[in-house]
Structures are given as structure tokens and as C-alpha cells.
Amino acid sequence: MSPAGEPVLRLQEFEVAAPRGSALTAAPTDSKLSARLPTSILSLQYIANNVVPTADYATIVNIAPSVANVETNGPGLSEAKHTTIRGIDDGGYNVTFDGIPFGDYNSYSHHTTSYFPAKLIGQVVVERGPGAASNIGIATFGGTLALSSKDPRTEMSFVPTPSYGSWNTQLYHFEVNSGLLPSLTGASALASYQRMSTDGYRTNADMKRDTYYVKYLQPIGKATTVTVLSSVNKISFGNPGTINQLQIDTFGRNFGLKDNIAANHLDLLNRAYNYQDKTADFEYIGIDSQLSDGWKLENKVYTYSYDNVSHEKPKVGSGAAAGQMLGSVKGNEYRTYGDTFALIHDDAVGTFKTGLWYDTTTNHRYTYGVNYDTTGADAIDLTATALYKAAAPGGNPATLPGAAGYDYKYLLVDKDTTFQAFAEYLWKITPQFDVDAGVSYQRFGRDFNATVNQTAGRQALVATRSDSKALPSVSAHYNITKDWSAYAQWAQGIMALSEGNSFYVDNANLGAINIKPQLSTNYQVGTVYQQDRFNADIDVYYVDFKNYAYSGPADASGDPTYYGVARGAYYQGVEAEGTYFLGYGVSAYANGSINRAVFKGSKLDVPTVPKSTAALGIVYDGNGFFGSLTEKYVGSWTVYNTITNPDLPGAGASRSANSQSYWIGDLSLGYGQKFSSGFFRSFKVRLQVSNVFNQKVQVLDGIDASAANAYTKDVFNVLPERNYFLTLALEF
After folding, report:
1. DSSP 137-188
2. pTM of the predicted model, to two decimals?
3. Which domains occur in the chain, in start order?
4. Pairing of strands 662-674, 682-690
5. pLDDT tens for residues 31-44?
């Protein structure tokens, strides 16, 4: 939803755009004078000219202040391992596409490669905070990454974009634009197909992806536009995990998986036993209509799905299966339907918004055992060598020989329903000063039906849970001058309970679960300054995080006896970004943040919170040439071998360590030219180099309880060494 009074921009890509001749147009990230909370905007021109075309949204947002992203296989060539905002990891914040929240519902995490490659994205907005009451989603707790789709071009065109890069990475993107169609009252359409394949930086971490995308805009009269969008993604890839120092020293920094050869038949790191196949789609029909007397209606009816079949956790059999390779097939499949509705009234006194969000998901998940030597990679193994098939201690009949759950580690259906209603009012007290206040009410429910629950006891469970919360927000905004503004915000965000924290205990312990949704109360002040020569923004934040979920002590079967909530943590810091136009097409850019998060009880640092982030860069655009050189810094963060209850001294951890801080540089150089006549209208070529200074970076991910085991059991995400991508775009 765009702020009232601001025009909605058409996010259409131009292969050769107007030169970026000011700080406002050259900035890799910036905010707006109308901002009411800490915000960074990454434009379509930045994405198209400065980001590798293989990228996903996590690659794009990495440059923003307080954001850190870990990618181990190359830009967009594997799912991001950690994409954090102020140290809050994926699952603790929203990701939306054209205002529609999406993601897994068992843990609210996202699969960065599974939906929207960079060539489909028209803009990304990083909101560091819950936002106003009208901001929808079940994880407003840590903020929102708001993705916007690219719009059809207003002129008819055919744009093939081939790209080739390191590790035999090949991308072919074909885009067709209808242009504005007078016979259909100015309708326009965009259709594209993308094929991407790569061997990947890591050994046997190959990936193949096919993406199909259609967007259609249909004006109806002078005041209404109907949007129809569909995106379909099919992807398969080798799936290595983290690696330890012994593996790095033995096999190299890029070690992932081993070749599928006879010598590796019983090797757990054989590519044949560690891979995923996915299909994901996302569709909506949207209506935007200017009604009479200052009223506006916005509505989107949507659906999206995710279907992942993952081969993982191989092990060598014993007993009757000695000398045979066993493994797991994990399935995660869901289909979501929903509707977002907003009614807005704007006049000289203020802007009123009210609306509803309804979302329902049916999620099927399972893991079963296979024997690669007797039944192959996908058949359920019903022989004596199966992986999980002992009868459950709880006596679940479904796990007895011949029953439906005999060979399943878990087999369940979780139906999730979210309802959110909101109302807010922005009061224009003076032409320079306004206040926005509102409240949203959210109710989230789970209907859980497990033939085999995801516990060691493998019991059956049919259960329900619902939680609700009213979330208020207040913000004030003041225009100090025409190019300088200030804001202050107080707002609450929420993260609904995960499936695991709701149900993953022995049935006898269900009543012992004492869990509540995570809440964040955000106090933020900031200021934005924007002129052609210089723009900048700075903010200070303080967040009170309540209801940190933790696991109780384990029972005899290894399951937690309960899930509870600790007091939480305090997050605080300062963030800034700015661009200065030096002249002659050259701009200097910088951003930075200082971040701190401490548990209230133990006073320990919260894990995976970088102590600071920064970015420095030079951007050039003129005479058809464009380019940028940026350096991103991510400070160290703390890793613990475990966290049980952070209210207690030591939080249950017996060992901690700090990750490596690092700088990573990216270079982009390009040239584009338009032609005034002829069938061939323009071209653009660009060379991009990631990790241009070839830094050797290992990001600590997990540690063992004993420092003596660090060499073999502490694990890392290793960042790729220097890599190159050459891209050509032609416009006909």
C-alpha cells in the first residue's frame, strides 16, 4: 500500500535509462522524506544495473544497513543461509510480494531461490520495524522485506538477456512486452521465461531452475485497474550443508558433496543422497479503484504453493541392513489462499485506512525412510531394513507393521488460518506535522492432525491452538523544511507460534506447554534529508523483545518435556545511509549500523546479531557507461553450542565463540546505447565481479560443546571466492 498522496510509480525496466545525475537517482539505497520508520529502498535501476541477474531478493538487500546475508554457492545460486535484519534471522520478519505475505507456515522461514529471481523484481523496500497498523503478516516482529513485481513496459518489446559466469553458470531470460494496447483501453502485459543452470561454487551443489512469469494490467474506465499475475518456478539442486575445518583443509574451501561413484556408495556426502526438487507458484488478481468522495479500494485475491521433496540425512545401515545405504525423503507441500482488502479515505484533514486480511494454508509434511540399495531413492522402504519402523513407545497403531505410518518419522497435516483486521488514521495537524495512530487485531489458529507426530515417540495427535493479539502503533512525522523531515514511532510487532513449539512433545506433556507469541515493542526516531547533491537518513532504535521460546529438559525419548517462554531480549542500535553526488556522473555512497542485542535474564549476547554493518561505494553513470564498486562489512556475531533458557545464568550454554568479521567487495561495469531507428532498439552489456578482492571468509554457524572438538565439529558457511558474470541485454 503506497502512502496517501504519493503517486504509484510504474516499475518498468529500461535497458538504457536516463543517466543517474543526482544523489537521489544514484543512491544504491535511500529513504523517503515521507518515511515514518527506518526504511531503505532499492530501486529497479539499481537492481538492473548493479546486481547479478542470477540474484534473489536476499542478494539484493544485502547492501542495506543492518542487513547481513550469507550465500555459500554464489549470488542466488543456493538458498540463503542467514538473511538477518538487525540480527533477527529469517522467520522473524515478513517477506511480502506486492503487499502479500508469503512463506512457510511451520516456522515462517523463506526459500529465497524458490519464487522470484531478480529479473522479476521491480523494487525492494527494507522496513526495519513492524510498521503501521495496516502492515499485514504473521511475522511483523522484526520488520518487512517488501518486494514489488516488475511492471509491463509501455512500449512493445522483445528483450532476450543471456548471461554467463563462473562455475559454468548460464542464465537465459526472454521477456515480451505488449506495450499499451489502445483497443483494450491501455492494457499492457509482460510475459517472461527464464532458464538458469549452474555447477555452483561448492562441489556438486549444482542447480537448475525454470521460471515462468506473466503480469497483465487492465484499466477499467478512468479510476480502476485490474492486475493479474502468475509466477511459476521449478528448481532442483544438490544440497550440501555446513562444513568443518577438517573438511576445508582436506577437500578445499569449496567442498560441498562428493561425486556419485562406486567408491562413494557408502559415503554420507554422496550427491546421490543429498538433493532437492521443488515447484512453487504464486498468483493473484488485484483491483485498485478510486471511488467517489476521496475513497479508494484495494483488494487482492491470491494463492501460492510450495512443494519440496528433499533427500537427506543418509546413514549406513546396521544389522540386517549392514553395508547398505539408508536415507530419508522429506516432503513439505502446502497451498495457501487468501485475500487482502483495504478501504482508504483521504481528504485535507487526514487519511483513514481500514481493512482485512484472511489467509488459510493446508500444509502436508512427512519424512519416511528409504533403502537406496533395495527400493531406490523414492519408494517407501517396507522391508526389514527400513529407517524408522520400530513401533512407537506410545503404542501408536499407525506405526505397527503394515500400518500407514510404519516407515514414517512423521506424517502430518497442519491447517493454519490467519485473520487480521486493522484501522488507522493519519491526522494532518498542520501542513508540516501529522500523527498516525492505529490498531490491528490478529488471530492465528492451527488445526493439527498427525498420523505420526514429529517427536521421538511417534504418537498420533489431533489438536488445535489459537492465539490472538491487538497490536497498536503510533507515529509522528514533521517536515522541518521542504527537503528535511523527522519521524518518531512506537509500534508493536508479532511472530505467531511455530508448529514445533505448539505440538512437538509427548502427548502426556501437552498440558505443560507454556508458550506465547513473540512480541516486539519498537521505539524509533529518525530523520531524512534529501537534495539533488546529497541525501542521507539516520535513525536510533530500541526494541523490547518479549516471549523468547525455549525447550524444556528432554524426556527419556529425547523430546522436550515442554516449551516455555523466557523474558526475551533488548535490541538497540543506530543506523545511517547517505549518498553524495560528486559531479561528472560520480557519486559516493556509505551506510552503517551499530547493533546490540542482549538477553534480559542471562545478559548474554543474542546469537547471530552482527555487532555492526557497513557499506562503502562509488557509483558512476554517464555517456552510456555505468558502474559501481561497493564494499559490504559484516561484524562478528556470537555463536553458542546451545541455548536452553536464556533467563538463567549462562543460558544453558557451555561454550561460545565469535564469528569472523569481514568485508566483501562487488564491482559492476556496463555500457548501454539506444538507437533512434531500426528494428534493433537498444543494447546493454555489463560485467560483474563478486568478492572482487578475493577475500577468504568463513562464517561460523555452529559449535560443539567442547573446544577440543572445534577442528572436526565446529561448522562454517564458506563464502565464495572471486567470481565473474557477463550479461548482454538486447531490445527489439
Report:
1. -SBGGG-EEEEEEPPPPSSEEEEEEEEEETTTEEEEEEEEEE--BGGGTTBE
2. 0.94
3. 23-731 (2.40.170.20)
4. antiparallel
5. 999 999 999 999 99
